[in-house]
Amino acid sequence: MERYKDKLKELYVFLKIHYLLDKIKPYRYKYKGILKSALPFLFMLPFFIMIAVMWFAPVIMTTYMAFTKTQWTITNMRFIGLQNFIRIFTRDIYVTRTIYVTVLYVSTVLMINAFFSLVLAIFTTYFIKRETIAIPIRLAWLIPRITPAVIYALLWRWFIDPKIGLLNSMLEFLGIPAPRDWLLTAPYSQILMIVVNGYVGASFGMIIYSAAITSIPTDILHAAMADGATDLQICRHIIIPLLKWPIFFVTAWQCLSLISSYEHILALWAGAGVARAAEVEVWALYAYSKAFYASEYGYGAALSLFLVIIGIIFILIFFKVFGFERMMQPSRVEV
Amino acid sequence: MSMSHEHKYKAAIRKAKIMNFIKYLIVYSVLLVPLIPIISMVIWLVVQSFSEGPTSGLIPRGFTLENFRFLWHPIRFGLSEYPNIWPIVANSLILAFGTMAFDVPVSALAGYALSRMKFRGRVATMKLIVALHAFPGVILLIALFYILNRLGLYGKGILTLIGVALVKAGLSIPMNTWILKGFFDGIPWELEWAAMVDGCSRFQTWRKILLPVIAPGISAVAIFSFMGGWGEFLLAYTYIKRREFYPISVFLYSVIGEFVFVDWGLLAAVALFYMIPIIAFYGLVQRTLLKLQLVGAVKG
């Protein structure tokens, strides 16, 4: 009898719970429905806030500040219409030289980043097939990229030092006349700028290209070899055509990032004034130095507005030409 | 087979061998000769930091630990003197951990939502992420300076460091969200269903089931953002004006800028010290680094 009582009690509790649950069911579902549709946005909320504050607001502020005179302190803004742009195009004596340096910088470093990196990738995948040799070489090429900019600058400072550095003694050993000062005399400083940034950028293309080359089915390459194709022919007629999209992608991507990069120049020349004297001041660095060295924030914003616009145009082109998928998987090869 | 045939055959083999040798000579010299400066710089950094006085080429002048005296003595560089290196190290650590603390939770939440939930604007958000990743954040530094001012994070000492970490995290969040979305995508749905059938809420599922599974992904992103904060120079240099809040990178930069007196040994020792976490990390993940399909976890 006791046992049945217990069972009944259990059953009663069970039924009561379910009765109650049934009663609140409509409310529960209603509540759940709201929660369900709101939940993804709750998850995304911190992300959206960060993006709004750190990306959208700065883009809008750059645009607005470009039309203001903001000097000495950044909160001291006065709307002056197109004055900054008139100044850029008519009165600023540094603009033409900055454009020249920027074009020189982007075009030459881009050659290294997009094409020399292709050579690196083909050599470390197609020619050197043993991974135990190829991977250390590729890792060594990554050193300039993973070294913090300041340390990288310090290392170059030593390397080019006329007294204790290695470069000039190496050049003397080879019988090439070495300049006294690599850092400050114009053609040499520009060569230095190209080389220093070239090393940093070369590994980006190398990684993407090598992933692409290793994903080429080997039977294609074997078939070509069986037909008697030389290595050069295989590179020219099989690998490079298959890598058309990755090459295109790396070139466009690096072009945009070179136009806007100045960290390594700033770090190596230790100050924008020195960089200007050495004629290595690219557009992005000029905008930076106008704002943070001369405290002309409005004018700096006007200069960087050009870069923002270039960036947006590039991104639109990216989406148009590459599409969404290819942008996230740039080393995919379609055979 | 006649003698002449055999001779021809051998000559052909010899020729092929020579051609092969030349081919690999070209390959290796193109790959390795440009690396000479880089490798010699790395060797120099190590040699110089243990050498008394500047090295001649790569050959040290004696052996000393004196260059590492900055770890326990006041440091004097040119005109400026620092009582101790450790506050500077602490600043770098605040920057690195701060970046990590802002970066990881935000991208973990967003990455999960993008991978698992259906909502309006999901595809648009993913496109936005890709666009932001391509967009060079460094050109926004002037406007970001205004925003830091507006948030009251400029010129406030330690708060400025936090502000720099916030900006750094904000600039790297799109990429990290994308990486973590990829990790979430790799987890089978069944795992979550099982948890939800057992009565877990969505949040509990995320906290108790998914997070442990994607722990490797989370730690990868955590370490990447830590390294980003540790190595950060430009933002810190631009926004931090007071010496006592310099991280190591800005400290080193200010020293390099002072031409008055260069103690190469001390400089190399500090640089080597600064590199320790980076060397350790890249030593651990070198292989994954090369296979990294993410479009430059470090921007090009």
Short descriptors:
heterodimer; A: mainly alpha; MetI-like fold; 2 strands; extended; B: 300 residues; mainly alpha; 2 domains; two-stranded antiparallel ribbon; 12 helices; 2% strand; flat; disordered C terminus
How would you portray this structure in words?
The complex is a heterodimer of chains A (335) and B (300). With 335 residues, chain A is mainly alpha-helical. Chain A has two domains: 1-37; 83-328, MetI-like (MetI-like fold). In chain A, 78% of the residues lie in helices and 2% in strands. Chain A has a two-stranded antiparallel sheet. In chain A, a hairpin with a 6-residue loop joins strand 1 (68-70) and strand 2 (77-79). In chain A, helix 10 packs antiparallel against helix 14. Chain A starts with a helix and ends in a 7-residue tail after the last helix. The mean pLDDT of chain A is 88. Chain B has helices at 3-32, 35-49, 86-116, 122-134, 141-150, 158-185, 189-197, 202-213, 215-231, 234-239, 248-257, 264-291, and strands at 75-77, 80-82. Chain B has twelve helices and two strands; from the N terminus they run ααββαααααααααα. Helices cover 70% and strands 2% of the residues of chain B. Chain B has a two-stranded antiparallel sheet with strand order 1-2. Residues 293-300 of chain B have low confidence and may be disordered. In chain B, strand 1 and strand 2 (80-82) form a beta hairpin. In chain B, helix 2 (35-49) packs across helix 12 (264-291) and helix 3 packs parallel to helix 6. Chain B has two domains: 3-77, no CATH class; 87-261 and 272-291, Orthogonal Bundle (MetI-like fold), CATH 1.10.3720.10. Chain B is mainly alpha-helical. The chains are: A mainly alpha (335), B mainly alpha (300). At the A-B interface, helix 1, helix 3, helix 4, helix 5 and helix 6 of A face helix 1, helix 2, helix 3, helix 4 and helix 5 of B.
